């Protein structure tokens, strides 16, 4: 019997051409994920497992006077109640952050943001643990909070980090890049200078799966197994070893299926440590799974930059220089995830895709009584902020010069022959060919036609806007000579083993959170060895079974680990060649590699496949002199540079003049991520990032009232876009391979999140041109757009 | 996962049995209809009740839309989805379908009820604005089968507060039908599909020989409760519909409401929307009445 469903499935499978190498194919992991067979942290059930709930501070800033846990301890099912004082006794009350600051595991002296961890309860079930929280009696002495970041450094501002010895203000760091004097000189000679204050408000990654862990400490073996929602299992293991003093080989970190990360799952959160302590204290496995509000109020946020941008140009639109002054809100603890020498991440790429004479940035970072972090949120280390800054100020310049924003960009692009191009802030762009990408986007959009339509509509009083952004990203951190996180170099390992029958297993140090590693990496190996992707198992996320490396964030998986995978496959191929030469009885020099087999030069009839060779390496009979049995290799890849994807985005919006509602009508995204491994996965990454951009541009923001109460504590208050706010994405591509990457791939994970917000904001501002609007800050909610229409645009913070 | 505090749960088998339970358990008990307002509050621990009395099995008894010449009666357990899909209702009062299209999302609409919406009395609640616009009255039943009928103005006591007592149930909404040509419409501005209103407005007009015999406007999210504005009705009655007239109505709406600034928008903007949406819905309602 063939029913409808069966025939549909077959049709689907037939359409999937299953390339042996690069090309469009269905994701290997989807069968599992779509059929509900994914296994996430919350699916982990261990015998005797207990549940943990965290008591959080209701205040943004308050001294803890006393904590009484007796009623909670007596509550049904409760096994342990732990406070900061308990942890202090164990030397675990504080832990290092990813930026060499410290963060409270549980507050001891005072609480520093609303939602901070104050105590935790371990009980037999989740309800009992939660109920017992209500019975913990904490007496707080409320202090004035620092909420307005602009006032954080005022002399009379309350001091947040009294835990840091000698700290007399809320200053975190000053940072500078570029040449201040030279920039000033170029500005002085410019015909036109445009300045705008640009705010990138605090947003939250809001992954569908919140953060959580299951800790299982075995007191007999002294071994800790930790299932956790982590994008970087190996880095986390090393840090646990350092913090908790458990020897590294006695810690196994397992990141099972992860329901979205976007940078939210890079840091080590106190909750993970709580579950470990809970398991050690009770001798039982302990699960902690935060709820939605906890995720939104306490885990790593992103952005929160207040930027003064200035651009200098000639009258005919040659951009000369850009300078910026940034005030960065880092929250109560500096938990930024960025390479140590880059406290502002890769913000230095704010010079964009343009050939400038000078650039300069000065930044001050401060503490406030808000959740800690400033972590990556699909932003490749602050590139989102940098790209937003440059693309917004370039548009403001176009407005001032009365020049078409596309033309202005085309006029200032770094030219193909200038690559590798060193920017005025010292970044070496590996490759790029910007104009074709821009022209393709304009062609797909029907740019000239759109401008004509806009002119007609304007004449009728209708509001239509066309926004452009052109971005260059710096991803794939990074060369270990200058990039490390807490002393760990940002290289990644890869191990490949070919089984006797020619099937393979590849082990990665990076970890998918939805990006499709199990498919992409199988395709990379397939491309190099000619083994079909279906025959290649991709293992990742378990520190006991995979090589060391720094994990998946900042679009680094393909640039770093992808290179490792290609190179490890080539190592295997080199060995296979020796064996093929013995099998075919010809010299190595007489062999040609045709994907999947070695054949004798000039005699295609004589060949051995990679599968034949694999069997031979494990089989009977001698191998050539000096060649060991087995077909496997391992590698640790240290990238020589970052890779620099680029893209051109065009957004078309319509605004209802009566209600100021913005409708994104069209969005054209042309990406150049170098070599394209699986175009379907690339498009998926782009679609997701674009939707994200709509959210940030139009509705998302974590805001606080003046007491420091978080106003985005649920998905009713913190809005993320739905299918109804997003148009049909129109995607296109160009290919400029990275010259230093073994397969020329550049990374795509964050391109769309980086590139789309400025395109959307530029479109809205363009639509508001009849009202004389040159800038308006995100989120462009109807109310804020209406303000802008009346010349009353205000910053969101 | 957000988990509520412990509570006891019972499924009601009839309206009177439910009232009996309420009478016995008093203020520590709550009815649960669709649960889409009550359960989130309990999970967030903003609300804590010892007993929940589930009235979903009363859908057979309280889920209906009945049309007669003089009025439309809608049972309190009628779900959003049923209101959305009812062609009969869309025929006489298209405002319902307009509103239901922009209330929440299909998952919420599958369960959420008319009664729950009104009893929740959220200031941004859309069906209250619809009922206010249509001059509906509410049938409340109490112990011993005692029934009383109150107007929407009487029903709303304050934000999240209604005239329904501890041991009472809202059973039915009654909407009068007038003889004249009727038209109605609803419009809402939201920051995102499925979000609560920044502001929404409903309008209904009744025309006789080209003139407005009656007109009503109901606004949501611009005051402590959804508000009907008698001054608008007075200004419109007896006139021929025109843009100038709608403008007058819009201006009255803007001046009569009492919005506050919050994350959804500034008070000024909301006032502006009260004006804009009043004009839009009146225009549409007139258009519908004429066709
Ligand atoms: C994501 C989301 C988005 C939403 N968006 C909107 C929106 O845009 N516009 C909008 O108007 N609403 C919106 N809502 C609310 C939704 O319409 C709710 O379903 C509705 O407000 C409550 O109806 P319910 O049947 O679920 O009531 P419940 O949650 O079951 O009950 C609500 C209250 O009413 C009481 N109650 C229920 N029935 C009766 C009765 N017959 N007699 C006496 N008391 C009763 C209960 O005891 C409780 O106090 C949204 C809800 C969600 C979850």
Mean pLDDT across residues of chain A: 95
Shape category of chain A: globular
- Helix/strand-derived category of chain B reads alpha+beta
Query: Total number of β-strand segments of chain B?
Result: 14
Task: Please indicate the count of domains of chain A.
Answer: 3
Structural class of chain A: alpha+beta
Strand content of chain A: 15-25%
**Cα gyration radius of chain B (Å):** 19 Å
Strand order of the largest sheet of chain B: 4-5-10-6-7
Would you identify the CATH architecture of the largest domain in chain B? 2-Layer Sandwich
Give the helix tally of chain A.
19
At CATH's second level, what is the architecture of the largest domain in chain A?
2-Layer Sandwich
The stretches of 5 or more residues of chain A where confidence is low (pLDDT under 50) are 1-15
Total domain count of chain B: 3
Care to give the gist of this entry?
The complex is a heterodimer of chains A (797) and B (291). Chain A has 797 residues and is α+β, with helices and mostly antiparallel strands.
Walkthrough of the structure:
The complex is a heterodimer of chains A (797) and B (291). By secondary structure, chain A is α+β, with helices and mostly antiparallel strands. Helix content of chain A is 28%, strand content 24%. Chain A is built from 19 helices and 32 strands. In chain A, helix 15 crosses helix 16 (610-618). The radius of gyration of chain A is 28 Å and the shape is globular. Chain A starts with a helix and ends in an 8-residue tail after the last helix. The model of chain A is unreliable at 1-15 (pLDDT under 50). Chain B is built from 13 helices and 14 strands. In chain B, helix 12 runs antiparallel to helix 13 (267-290). In chain B, a hairpin with a 2-residue loop joins strand 8 and strand 9 (161-162). Chain B folds into three domains: 8-58, Uridine Diphospho-n-acetylenolpyruvylglucosamine Reductase, domain 2, CATH 3.30.43; 61-176, Uridine Diphospho-n-acetylenolpyruvylglucosamine Reductase, domain 3; 181-290, Enolase-like, domain 1 (2-Layer Sandwich), CATH 3.30.390.50. Chain B is 38% helix and 25% strand. In chain B, the strands form four sheets. Chain B has a five-stranded antiparallel β-sheet with strand order 4-5-10-6-7. A four-stranded antiparallel β-sheet of chain B has the order 11-12-13-14, sandwiched between helices. The mean pLDDT of chain B is 96. By secondary structure, chain B is an alpha+beta fold. Chain B is globular and about 55 Å long. Chains A and B meet through helix 5 and helix 19 of A and helix 13 of B. The complex binds flavin-adenine dinucleotide (FAD).
